[in-house]
Amino acid sequence: MRSILVIGAGAAVVFLAACGHTATVPAKQLGDLVLHPGDLPAQFTAFYVGPQVRLDTAGTPRANPARFGRKGGWIARYHRPGTFGTRGPLVLDSGVDVFGDADGAKQDLSAYRALFAETAASGGPGAKAISVPRIGDEAIGMTNRQIGPHPVRFFVIAWRFRNATAAVGANGFEGKVTLAEVVRLARRQQQRLASD
Amino acid sequence: MRRLSGVVVALGALAVYLVLFSGSAAGYPGLFEDQDDNPVQSGALDFRDVSYGTTITECPQAGKIDEQPKPLDRRDIDQAEKHSGGNDRRMNQDFSCMPQDETTIDQNPNVASNYVGGANDYRLGWGTSGFYASTDNGTHWYDGITPFPSLPSGDNLDGGGDPVTVFDRAGVVYYAQINFNRTDDTSGVWVNRSTNGGFTWTRPCVPIQVAPPPTEQSRCGGAGDPRQPGDGTVGFIQDNDSRLNGSVPAFDKEWLTAGPRPSGVNPQCFTPLAHAPTVCASGVVGVDRLYVTYSLFSGAGSAQIFVSYSDDQARSWSAPKFIAGAAAFCAAGGRAGNECDDSQGSEPTVNPTTGQLWVGFINGDTTDEDQYLVVTSTDGGQTFSPPSRVDTLYDVNEPRGVNGRTDCVARGQGSTRTDLTNTCFRADPIFNSIVADKRGGAFADDVYVVLYDNRNGTIRNSNNDVFFYKSTDGGLTWVGPTRVNDDPSDMPANRDCGRNTNSIVGNAANCPATGTGNDQFFPFVSITQKGNLNITFQDRRLDTTSPIGSGEWPTSKTEVGNYLVWYWGAQCKITTTATVGPTATDVPSAASQCVAPEAVVNPTAATGFNPGAGPVPGNGQSAATLPFRNFQISDVGSNYDYSFRAGLFAGDYTGNTGGPEDPNGDEKGGETTAAVWTDARNGRGSGGPVDLQAGRNPICEQSDVFFQRYNSENGGKGSKANDQSLQFFLTAPCPQDIKDKGVHGK
């Protein structure tokens, strides 16, 4: 009887491992594919978690909710209290879009690339595309600097994983938020995509 | 055997009955549940629509409870609540902690103490149209959600918004709104009707066609539904693919007014489906003609402005008529025949002595800045004049995500929306305001417009001001702008800094840091029978010291001050008039009341259609000679970061109404104005911990509808609160402690 249980557990491991390497990211349970409160420092609270709405992409190359065979999308937004002396990001957003196939996701990442280029072209010297470490199958990034007595620094990393695109955006005051912090968050979200 | 046969027959008859009236016998498993104790199927099976509408409004048992019970209150009263004193009245009476915003109000012309307001109301968990009724001058309010329109599918259309409440001269009050689905493109415009001062409302009906065309035999619901097919349905389009993808035209931003039919225009009723003219049934013709204008977004224009009218108290509506017209100043839009098809935010208004109708709206068929246009009809909405151009509306240089406000995009605001300095709520000047003079004679062709824009600000530092315009020749010629708000507002050195021509895209880093003033926005104008103009608006002038890098959203609060919001009023009286025609160059003294010395005739004649970096009319007006007396209405400051959805939306407009204190009094009697606005003094932060309060709503952000009433000519004595400190409203966290205090106040 005991050997049967061991065999059963082994089969379950093989089965789960096989599930972890399916060719596509399913368009179900989209909420599991974005950052959760447990992925973040305790000070952060969510102020919107749910399906993406038109407002999230209005006026951008990604505005069409049916673009490139898109099946659905989700977004979670978090923020924390602070001042211009607070270290780390103060506002975060974590989004995901799932497409019918990898080609749709590739086109969506191209749309991200066009959006980043547009922003860099119109956003002044503080806005530029940046190279980011590999996350998922391919990743791109940009940064921006919003002027003011205490300038605000923005980082956005977008990447593709199989048939999905994902993005993490973060902002905090200049000198208090780093790209490395945002990369860590993006990698945490990628773990969610890869484990589904 | 014979007995058994009887049982079989009886059971067979029962089975036939069940098949006929319940769909199938197997569909009623609970029929014999008493014998075998099976669980009873319930839920959706037992729900049945009541399709009788609400046309009976005077039930004997209605409203017998004089005092509302109070819920158990487990909160601590926090500092913001302790400092929210004063005499403003909250109109919504719900305990849901969900937002209300986008406010409207009107006063019963026959019962002066009867006010009826409306607002977007989220108490159910999503946006609907809330109503608020008072019969004691706003001291106490009854409230609720207007009935949803019924659809041919048998369903309700339960997403609502864009509320407008208007009384006709008989004291019947109407509630116009859009209703829509959030998961597909189905939408329409409807008007509910109340004959008891706004306490109960009809349920609109999209007719169900029961015979093939061309007959218009139709019904509303099942047998016994007494509603008239089409009652309250101005326009409706059912989606064609059950997806939210813009596959069919979409209704938006309707407005409603009521006024007498012009001389020679007879009452006309319409069929429910084709909206073809038909004979009116006896007893349904109202004293006034109702006009609804709205925007229709489609491939033909984004959007076109249409009007429909009703003579039978909103029971039937004329076919939609395109009214925005065509003009050379719309040529840049590239539409066929220079049609002004890129329009929004229409509002109709009627002179109550002649029935002349005007409709104002914004338009974007321009080479650069937007424009505000007005059309008029003297035959009850059958034909309209070409549009006249009131002025340029300088809103291309509003701060937005695409020109520097990335912080607002990160919070979820659309990148093309207007974001005022330090905040992210939607502040686009979509809805402005127009009102016809109420008097006859020489005043009968006088009409007034207020709008707001950022001509005195830049994409880095917003400084929206409210401007007043008047026409004394029926809407053909306009005199203005006259700045309404009298706080300091300087001319920017280059109002176009950092932006590209004919584009909202830009770079705020190219603008100097200097702020030129404070924002005033969401204005509304009314006029009384005695010529008292009352303009009300949201105003940030009292916040000059709130610190940067603080509050709920530190990376959005990057400039000192200009953060909290109050509601303000402005008054001026018009007692004389004179015609100012299109060839005039000066304003005669009889037409100069409520006009700033710097105002000009046809202000856009000086700037053309691409005004450039400035100066433009409305820049540099001296506060010392502005004609409108300003005063504070709301008692305390309001933090719009605590309005709907993390401070992204606080409505698109506010409202006020004016009338005699005593409708039956003589002309020496006083007049009162009542103002309603979106107020977030009861909003709190969404910050955690969120799991300490069992049963708390997931968000604390909320705004309410507030009311204040004052003398129309000499009102507005300022705040009644003892403490005007700002700090309690800059950051007000969601309550965390639970203390069983029992019933509040006991």
Report on this model:
The complex is a heterodimer of chains A (196) and B (746). Chain A is built from four helices and seven strands. Chain A is of the alpha+beta class. Chain A has one domain (24-195): Protein Transport Mog1p, Chain A, CATH 3.40.1000. The two termini of chain A are 32 Å apart. In chain B, the strands form nine sheets. Chain B has a five-stranded antiparallel sheet, with no helix packed on it. In chain B, strands 1-34-33-32 form a four-stranded antiparallel sheet, with no helix packed on it. The termini of chain B are far apart. The model of chain B is unreliable at 1-37 and 689-696 (pLDDT under 50). Chain B has a single domain (87-210, 227-718), classed as Neuraminidase (6 Propeller). The A-B interface holds A 45, 47-48, 54-56, 58-60, 65-66, 75, 77, 79-86, 90-91, 93, 122-126, 144, 146-150, 152, 154, 169, 171-173 and B 243-245, 401-407, 410-417, 460, 505-510, 513, 548-550, 552-555, 558-560, 645-646, 648, 685-688, 690, 699, 731.
Question: Brief description of this entry?
Answer:
The complex is a heterodimer of chains A (196) and B (746). Chain A is of the alpha+beta class and 196 residues long.
Could you give the topology of this structure?
The complex is a heterodimer of chains A (196) and B (746).
Chain A: H1 2-20, E1 45-51, H2 54-57, E2 70-79, E3 91-99, H3 102-122, E4 128-130, E5 138-146, E6 152-161, E7 164-173, H4 179-195
Antiparallel strand pairs in A: 1-2, 2-3, 3-7, 4-5, 5-6, 6-7
Chain B: H1 2-22, H2 33-36, H3 79-82, E1 89-90, E2 100-107, E3 115-121, E4 128-134, E5 142-145, E6 159-167, E7 173-180, E8 187-194, E9 208-209, E10 218-219, E11 233-237, E12 250-259, E13 269-270, E14 277-278, E15 289-298, E16 301-310, E17 321-322, E18 343-350, E19 357-363, E20 370-377, E21 388-393, H4 406-410, E22 433-436, E23 447-453, E24 465-471, E25 479-483, E26 520-527, E27 532-539, E28 566-573, E29 600-601, E30 617-620, E31 629-632, H5 644-647, E32 655-660, E33 671-679, E34 704-711, H6 727-730
